[in-house]
Amino acid sequence: MGVSETYERGRRLLVERPFLALVVVVGVLLFLDLLYKLGTGAVGIATVVGHVWNGTVIGLIIGLAGIGLSLTYSILGFANFSHGDYLTAGAFSGWATSYLVAGLGSSADLAALFLLTASPRAVGVTIASKPLAVFLGLGVAVVFTVVLALFLDRVVYEPMRDAGGISLLIASIGVALAIRYAVVFVYSTDIRGLTAGDVPRSRLTIVDGAVVIDAHEVALVVGAVALMLGVHLLLQRTTLGKAMRAMADNKDLARVTGIPTERVITATWIIGAALAGSAGYLIALKRGAMNYNLGWVLLLLIFAAVILGGIGSVYGAILGGVAIGVVNNLSLVWIPSDFARVAAFLIMILILLFRPEGIYGGVKTA
Amino acid sequence: MSGGGFALADARSYFRDSTAATAAGVLAVLYVLLSIAAMAGVGGTVPAWRETVLVFTVYALLIVAVGMLWRYSRNDAVIIVGVMAAIYVVYLMAGVLFLGLPLNGIVNTLRRITFLSAVYAMLVLALNLHWGYTGLFNIGVAGFMAVGVYTMAMLSGPADIALGLPLPVGIVGGVVAAALVGAIAALPALRLDADYLAIVTVALSEIIRLSYNSTVFQSSIPRLRLAGITLLPSIPVGTGGGQGIRTPTNPVRALYYKDPGDTSAGLTDLGEFAFGAADGVSVTLIGGQGVQPPVVIALTYVLVLVAFVAGFYWLLIRVGNSPFGRVLKAIREDELVANSLGKDTQRFKIKTFMLGCALMGLAGILWRGSTGFTQPGDYLPIQTFYVFLALIIGGAGSNTGSVVGGIVFATLLFEGPTTLARLIPELLQRLFNTQLGSPPSTFVGAVAPIAQLDLTPLLAYSLRNISTLRFILLGVLIVYMMQNRPDGLFGHRKEVAAGVDLRRPDRDTGAGAATDGSESG
Fold this sequence. Notes:
The structure holds two protein chains of two kinds. Chain A is mostly helical.
């Protein structure tokens, strides 16, 4: 290993893949700029830590939702454009339950609770004040989304098992529209405030400022990590994981080997939808408000995470999710918030251009 | 069906397996029920019943007629004109007999559905070049439209954040910009599978929309600084941000007004004549004053649009029948084969992508650029899905199908539900003398009365939220089409590879168009 070898590699990169070299140069420049900004005090260290924390929180949700998208992508062989709306369905069903549980016996009437139009202050849901309502809501979000996904698989995707990926993709766009506007039909397009009251929070002092961490973010992180661990154990310790990997590799081969492919597909939908539903519920808990666009807006970020991590890889989806979340937030150091999503999409396009197999490319760890 | 007449066996098979025939059957049953009800004197208001029966009869006949045209006509122009004419009759009868619109309103309704049909037909034709011909799965149509319209508005719009160049410069600039962005998008198209390309194009269209929506470029393009160094100076051209941007005055106004931007400057000679003649039009059946100047101007513009649709159609037929087009179809069927035959498929893909994007930009300019104002909300991904659904209905790969798909989508699926929502209360009022009453404000308020077997609140709520239901309908329709008719209305037609007609006239009888149809575009 010498200077000349490093130089030679750099030269080859520049000649053979000039665009990649350009991307690397821009990346290095941005990193230097960040150091420069930290050094001159233009950007505080606490601000950067705050961006990283917020990015991680959002990223865990994106990763959680991404696991399901990644699994359906590799096992059913299509990019599911309705996955984001599974999050929306989970969030609305879960929060309707939370409101009904929390508001039972209060002055608010049932219709207002179900439609989430009751005053958030009157119902007063937080993880600290009404933990039971939150847990039941999360549970219903999971169950409802699973039932919805299985129903849709039965009605939409099962008759199309042999269709190509593009046909399924187009059908999933139709499903996405139907779910989203069914939610609008019941809940309208208004933004619903959800949580109110004092959420316990703590201030972490860092060098030149402080980062605020509240209980909902902690709940989200704990919930997301627990669910991810659960999926990890499920896929590593049971034969289901092995069957899924076999299916992702070669569906026909898996079938002739005696793997009950339809049951594996059902299991895939159950896992994916359960994670999507809980992700939708938790992100609404963190934000304290939601509307019918909740999942659709996140969908492209979820795709970005899955592609970044490598399609079919559970750990890739988690890692990709956190990376996309952090990029999404850290980009605020340079660009206005209007462009945070643009930055994440650009990262995804660059990954597709230069490493379409993703971080965990080639290794199917599902 | 060329040559011989229409055989009985054909008719039987047609009614057995045609969706149109099924729909006509449903209407026929409805017709019988209505007739019985009318004879029994339900509701008492006999004229309303007679009118309704008449209208439904005509509708049923129209569906059968259009279905037969679709099935047996070889002449694509006749099919397109026939479909459009049938839809005109549907809207005309509904407008005159049920909604009681004045002449100006009727003409304007027909104008509006023609306008929407034309712009969708253009967009679908452009998308057909990508997906239908080449198999490039582009779901960023809205983004390329936005580039065309915004570039045009920023180059030659009336706003003070625009450059104020002449309109032709703006239009050419918009089309070129859309093509260039298409070239950038084609970069991943070279490497990626179809589903990755889908994600990239939809992400790109969102990047474009979010950029136009941003306050950063609202009044000027700011200077670019990195690590304390200014890389680009500020440029005084803005996008208007979320507030939108004004687009140039529609040039057809210059035909009628001496100063297109200021009506008080007086009319041109043509304007005096045309406005006077239009105002003087009266039809005995339809009341109200004649056609008003704004509608006359809009009608003129619709004629321009129809000419553009014909131009798009001609261009795509020419492209499809050229050697270039044959390579595109080969790429769609099997890229590897095309490649191994020595065709540089990547170059073909880039060129096609750029041409299609340029056409999308032009269609965007002709649509959104003609209304005086545009905003980023006009270019949501849903706009792309509309165009895609229209292409799926028409049948990817068929230009005639693209035009018919655009017409069917715009008139029946997009405008249809809202028109129906206006018709239903009117019909209920006339036939049963019942009123729906004011719709409940919430879903629970609409559903709760079902317990007392009262469905009217739910109906009223549904009619008020018809635009939401329309989205659900479109979603369900996409799934239905993909499951049952992935080829659309015209995608089943076979294409001849040759650029010239190889059919021998003396042997060209026998089976119908469905089996050996020879539409080449």
